[in-house]
Every structure is written in C-alpha cells, then in structure tokens.
Amino acid sequence: FNQQNIGNTAWAISRLLVRDRPLLDALAAAAIPTISLFAVQGLSNTAWALSTLRDCNHGPLLHAISSASIPIIKDFDSQALGNTAWAFACLWLQHSGPLAYAISAAAITPGA
C-alpha cells in the first residue's frame, strides 16, 4: 500500500463501519513509518476514519498524524481543517492540544 491507498482504505472501512481490528492494525503499521509522506487529504481522512470508528486503540498513529499535520497545516483547506479538528475532538486525545492550536491559527489566517 502507498500512502493514498492507506488513507483511502481507512476512509472506506469507516464509511462501512467495519471495525476490523487486524485490518486497522495493519493500516496503522503501514502508515506510521511513512506518515510524513502523506498528503493533506490522507492525513485528514485517516484521522477522520479512526474517529468515525471511535478507535482510540491507535494512539501512536493518531500522534503521528498530529505531528505530521502541524508543519503543513497551512496546506490544509477548510474541509481538511474541519475534519481533522472534528476527528481529534471526538476522540479526546491528550496530545491533540498543539494540533488544535495549529488548526485554530490556520482557520483564522486569510487564505487558509
């Protein structure tokens, strides 16, 4: 799987409400080492997918998504900002504070 395949697969199984733990584990294992290569949509979709499934078991993946998103937050469009903020807010993750701050700053910046 490449980065787009991982994000698309996560999104698809969440839309179907498939809670397949081994599949999610495999996606997380494939995503974490390459998370810095993910496009904005892949980061946002993967976070959204885990949140839709109420999956708090993949904290390392969510932390990686947060860490990868912050430096490129200016590249997020309004949908990606909203979806990512929603995803992390729904899961009440401890490490989402810096990401929430970055999203807030990007949302009020003209052109974001």
From TrEMBL:
<dbReference type="InterPro" id="IPR050870">
    <property type="entry name" value="FAST_kinase"/>
</dbReference>
<dbReference type="GO" id="GO:0035770">
    <property type="term" value="C:ribonucleoprotein granule"/>
</dbReference>
<dbReference type="GO" id="GO:1901259">
    <property type="term" value="P:chloroplast rRNA processing"/>
</dbReference>
<dbReference type="GO" id="GO:0005759">
    <property type="term" value="C:mitochondrial matrix"/>
</dbReference>
<dbReference type="GO" id="GO:0003723">
    <property type="term" value="F:RNA binding"/>
</dbReference>
<protein>
    <submittedName>
        <fullName>Uncharacterized protein</fullName>
    </submittedName>
</protein>
<dbReference type="GO" id="GO:0044528">
    <property type="term" value="P:regulation of mitochondrial mRNA stability"/>
</dbReference>
<dbReference type="GO" id="GO:0000963">
    <property type="term" value="P:mitochondrial RNA processing"/>
</dbReference>
<dbReference type="GO" id="GO:0009507">
    <property type="term" value="C:chloroplast"/>
</dbReference>
